[in-house]
Amino acid sequence: MRRAGGQAAARDRGPAGRKIGWPSENCLFRRYMTVAEDYNMSKEMQELQKQWHSMVQAIHSNSNVVAFMNSRVGQYLDDHPFIALSLLMFIAVSAIPVAFFLIFVVTTAIMACIGVIVMEGVVIAIGGIALLCVLCGLSALSLGVSGVLSLCYIVLSTLVNYWCASRGQMRKKEINGSLPRKSPPVSDLSANTGKNE
After folding, report:
1. In the structure, how many helices (H) and strands (E) does the chain have?
2. Calculated CA dihedral for residues 7, 8, 13, 17, nearest 10 degrees
3. pLDDT digits (tens, 9 = 90+) for 87-125
């Protein structure tokens, strides 16, 4: 009985010693998952193909593309697909360096504008400080000049007033000294003559 059981077990095993029979649950699950993944991948590929076709149709139906394809350049590129592919590859490859160059130009322009604004602000600040200093100096100078002028005016006015007053007094004295003595009246003269007789 044991030999018969051993022979049956040997029959169930393959040449490599593997057990021959129904696959296990893990193998079935793995196969199901691979089939499901393949099905999902096929669905995704179909959706991508639909999106690609819709995008190509939208590009071909565009009025600008239709006008370009009807032009001489478009017809020439349609007749020479190798040149069209080379041009497309050149445009795709040169987009990155052109974008970097444009970014560099924009950044340098912005930096130049900022630098100009900063320099202008610094120059305006320095000019404002210099103007404030000049105005302070001019105010001090104007105060000094006005003080000197007012002092000169006071001195001159006092001198002129003193000179005018002294001259007026001298004129009064001269006028009083040059006046003739008053003659006695006629009645007094007749009275004096009568007394003398």
Report:
1. 6, 0
2. -30
3. 888 888 888 889 999 999 999 999 898 888 888 889 999
User: Are 65 and 59 a contacting pair, CB within 8 Å?
Assistant: yes
Over the stretch 57-80, which tens digit does the pLDDT of each residue have?
887 778 887 887 788 888 888 788
Amino acid at 129: I
Give every CB contact of residue 6 below 8 A, 6+ residues apart in sequence.
none
Listed in sequence order, the residues at least 6 apart from 75 whose beta carbon sits closer than 8 Å to its beta carbon are 69
CA angle (62 as vertex; 58, 63 as ends), nearest 5? 165
Cβ atoms of 33 and 26 within 8 Å: the answer is no
Strand boundaries in the chain, DSSP class E: none
Query: Are the CB atoms for 99 and 92 separated by under 8 Å?
Result: no
Phi first, then psi: what are they for 99, rounded to 5°? -65, -40
User: What is the rounded distance in angstroms from the CA atom of residue 156 to the CA atom of residue 150?
Assistant: 10
pLDDT in tens, 151-172: 999 999 899 888 888 887 877 7
Q: What is the DSSP letter of 1?
A: -
